[in-house]
Design goal:
- By secondary structure, this protein is mainly β.
- The chain has one helix spanning about 355-365, and strands spanning about 5-10, 15-20, 30-35, 45-55, 60-70, 80, 85, 95-100, 110-115, 120-125, 130-135, 140, 140-145, 145-150, 160-170, 175-180, 195-200, 210-215, 220-230, 230-240, 245-250, 260-265, 275-280, 290-295, 300-310, 320-325, 335-340, 345-355.
- Strand 10 and strand 11 (about 130-135) form a beta hairpin.
Length: about 375
């Protein structure tokens, strides 16, 4: 396993719950925070949140700005044209995750999951018009938290449905067909309707907390990577005609897999010789792990843990969020800089993956001699 090295850690005023790097300024990232005053069962409980803007240059951290949002942040802050956008609700219902349509689609459409099990979809051009499907995620008809949402990444052909995946505390992975209603040829609009297309409750043994669509292969199978409270990360095939979820590989990470972020994807996902994806996983009480998700020439999948990081000064570790900065010289893992959090301790950690081969070469070239004082 590759070794990791802590570069810097700081303590924040509030508990960090999400991280997002700017897609247009890779040295800028935003941390969303959350603070609960009272207990969940107390009617007088109040929640507060905020955003902190950081600059990360050459492994050194600078605080640029901070402000309150008067609402908690669970998933990543989002960006439109490089500007930060905060989505909040004014009721007791919380937004638990959100996802934009990919950048090559006709319009920027946001899909959202909520703490009452509902999902909502709206176009950023008309944010006052929202399509909502209530209580998608429920246990015996009682609404339960919906935790994860992701648009399927490949652009559909004109006239065909967009597909949206959601996961929640009911252990269900839901696939929704979003019917594209064209608005004067401008593309997806807020009057679009959608229905639940498929609901799988067999693939996961606890709540579905993270979903990363990988791609659609030549056999028209949609390939997903999911994380769950049951401590497993899984590769799933969504297969025709039933669109049921088939587990191709799984790996236990020894705590809830709260978040998954794609670090690197292969240039040709259909390469018959085999492919691999690199993924950053936030695994709550056991910190962060870097995963290699790979498929060989026989269409067999596997998941390896390449590296892991836990704050060495931890007392009550709980990593809800992590992010990464791609190196300026190359996209190699050792050139990336990682940011992770410890929720209860209000810690923010900056770390890197060390090159073990380089370290070994250094030990051979510069051995430490007995009695050497320098």
């Amino acid at each position: 396993m590759l070794q990791t090295k802590l570069l810097e850690s700081i303590t924040l005023e509030r508990q960090p719950s999400c991280i997002a790097f700017s897609p247009v300024q890779p040295d800028i990232f935003i941390v969303g925070t959350y603070e609960l005053y009272g207990s969940e069962s107390d009617e007088k409980t109040t929640r507060d949140g905020g955003l902190i803007v950081f600059r990360l240059q050459h492994g050194i951290l600078y605080v640029m700005n901070a402000f309150s949002t008067d609402a908690q942040s669970r998933q990543s802050p989002i960006t439109i044209s490089g500007e930060a956008v905060v989505v909040t609700t004014e009721s007791e219902v919380s937004i638990t995750s959100l996802d934009f349509t990919p950048s090559d689609w006709e319009a920027s459409v946001i899909a959202v999951t909520m703490s009452n099990g509902s999902i909502a979809v709206w176009d950023t051009a008309t944010p006052d018009k929202i399509s909502t499907l209530p209580a998608v995620h429920n246990i015996m008809s009682n609404p339960t938290q919906a935790w994860a949402v992701a648009w399927f990444t490949q652009k559909p052909k004109p006239g065909l449905s967009h597909f949206l995946y959601t996961g929640g505390d009911d252990s269900a992975l839901c696939r929704h067909a979003v019917n594209d209603v064209l608005d004067g040829g401008k593309g997806f609009c807020s009057t679009s309707s959608y229905t639940e297309f498929q609901r799988d409750v067999k693939a996961h043994d606890a709540g579905v907390t993270a979903i990363v669509p990988l791609w659609k292969d030549k056999k028209k199978r949609e390939v997903l990577l999911t994380g769950s409270y049951d401590e497993f990360v899984r590769v799933l095939y969504i297969t025709a005609p039933t669109k049921s979820a088939r587990i191709e590989a799984s790996r236990r990470l020894y705590d809830g897999v709260w978040q998954l972020k794609l670090l690197e994807r292969p240039p040709d996902p259909d390469d018959p010789a085999g492919i691999s994806f690199l993924v950053l996983a936030s695994c709550m009480r056991v910190g962060c792990k870097i995963l290699k998700v790979h498929r060989n020439s026989e269409d067999e999948w596997g998941i390896e843990v390449l590296a892991e990081f836990v704050d060495p000064g931890r007392v009550r570790p709980l990593s809800y969020a992590s992010g990464f900065q791609v190196g300026s010289s190359s996209p190699d893992l050792q050139d990336m800089t990682f940011v992770s959090t410890s929720f209860y301790e209000k810690k923010l950690c900056i770390w890197k993956v060390e090159d073990e081969e380089a370290e070994e070469r250094g030990r051979r070239e510069h051995p430490i001699l007995v009695g050497d004082s320098g």
